[in-house]
Structure formats: structure tokens, C-alpha cells
Write a structure and sequence with these properties.
By secondary structure, the protein is an alpha/beta fold. It has one domain: 3-Layer(aba) Sandwich (Rossmann fold). The protein is about 50% helix and about 15% strand. It contains nine helices and seven strands. The strands form two sheets. Strands 2-5-1-6-7 form a five-stranded parallel beta sheet, sandwiched between helices. A two-stranded antiparallel ribbon has the order 3-4. Helix 1 packs across helix 9 and helix 7 packs across helix 8. The longest helix has 23 residues. It is globular, with a radius of gyration of 17 Å. It starts with a strand and ends in a 5-residue tail after the last helix. About 35% of the residues are buried. About 10% of the residues have low confidence.
Length: about 200
């Protein structure tokens, strides 16, 4: 039987990460966010720090710091560029999907695993709702919250569109787009599970 794989994209401040965690808890499926994807990378011989914040950063990495051990023999003159980093990240995500059921947050997972029978979800919410969540959860004033939200969304959109040649957040890229402000975190998780089961994508 094929593994249950749910890929969750999200607007910043929509609570998409919390929704993914709620879905995982209800289904008993591990959720791979930045921390766990970095851990999986480390288990495969890569430096954990290189993968942290992978959707947000664009830079070069020294080969000597990229690998968690020196056994591969790269010196200080070798560097990992963004394309190589994305390729290795894709390999890590594919290995996660092959090992068992998984919920993967962000990282262009819907594109990387497009040949598999996954449930691709995008969690969104109105701007006012997202700003209010950031004000409450992060202690920001409304102007700071809006600026942070717009910056994070631009970064995620640019990262996704560059590597997938698609359109981040565009409805026809996903099986389900859901507004988390309507049902809340728990209710949105239930909605995703119900949809996934009806669609035959949650086994």
C-alpha cells in the first residue's frame, strides 16, 4: 500500500504549520517542518545548519561545513550553490516520502513529489486575520506584523516559483486550498482529513 503523504503550503501567519501539526496528531503521522527536515538531512550525512530556514535563505555554503563529517574530502575551495542545495533537499524529501507516511510543510514538497499520489494542500487566511495572529502570537505591533508577513510571503513565493516554475498559492496547483480563519486550527485540520479521505489520498 502506498504511503500517505500530505504536502502543506501556507501563507505566513495563516497558522498552516499548526494545522499540519494538528493533522499529524489526529492521524498519527510525523510532521516534517524545518526542524525535522534538517534532522533528516543530518541523518543522511549533511550539516543540519545548512537546511535550517531553507525557504528563506539564498547563499553559498562551504563544502567543509555542508557535510557533517569530513569523509567526503571536500576542501575549503568547494561551495554549494542554491541549485545544488535544492537538489539535495529534494533527495531528502523523497527519502522521507519513501520511508513511510509523512506530512511535509513547505520546501516545494508538492513539486518535488509530484509523481507520487500525494494530498497537496495550501493554507491561507485574510490579511487582517494573519496580522492579528502575528500581533497576538509574536508581540508585534500591526505595522510590524504586516511588514513581516509581506516579506515572508514574498520570499516563499519567489523560492517556490523559481524552483517549480509554478505559481505559489495558485489554487490549481493544489488539491485543496483552505481558509484557516473560518474553522480555526483544529477545524481546518478536520476539513483536510475529511477531504483527503474522500479523495482517497489518506489511507
Amino acid at each position: 500500500m502506498a504511503n500517505t503523504i500530505i504536502n502543506v503550503g501556507r501563507q505566513f501567519g495563516s497558522g498552516g504549520g499548526y494545522v499540519a501539526q494538528a493533522v499529524g496528531k489526529k492521524l498519527g503521522i510525523p510532521v516534517y517542518d524545518n526542524e525535522l527536515i534538517s534532522k533528516a538531512a543530518e541523518e543522511n550525512g549533511y550539516s543540519k545548519s545548512v537546511f535550517e530556514g531553507g525557504e528563506q535563505r539564498k547563499s553559498l555554503f562551504s563544502m567543509s561545513s555542508f557535510f557533517s563529517s569530513g569523509r567526503l574530502g571536500f576542501g575549503e575551495t568547494g561551495y554549494v550553490n542554491d541549485d545544488m542545495l535544492f537538489k539535495i533537499q529534494s533527495e531528502i524529501i523523497r527519502s522521507i516520502a519513501e520511508k513511510g507516511d509523512a506530512i511535509i510543510v513547505g520546501r516545494c514538497a508538492d513539486y518535488i513529489l509530484r509523481d507520487l499520489d500525494c494530498l497537496d494542500v495550501f493554507v491561507c487566511a485574510p490579511m487582517e486575520f494573519r496580522i492579528q495572529r502575528l500581533v497576538q502570537n509574536e508581540g508585534l505591533d500591526p505595522d510590524e506584523a504586516e511588514a513581516l508577513m509581506r516579506r515572508k510571503d514574498r520570499t516563499r513565493e519567489a523560492y517556490y516559483n523559481f524552483y517549480t516554475f509554478g505559481a505559489w498559492g495558485k489554487a490549481d496547483n493544489y488539491d485543496l486550498c483552505v481558509d484557516s480563519s473560518i474553522l480555526g486550527i483544529d477545524g481546518t485540520a478536520d476539513c483536510i482529513i475529511d477531504f483527503g479521505r474522500r479523495a482517497g489520498k489518506i489511507r
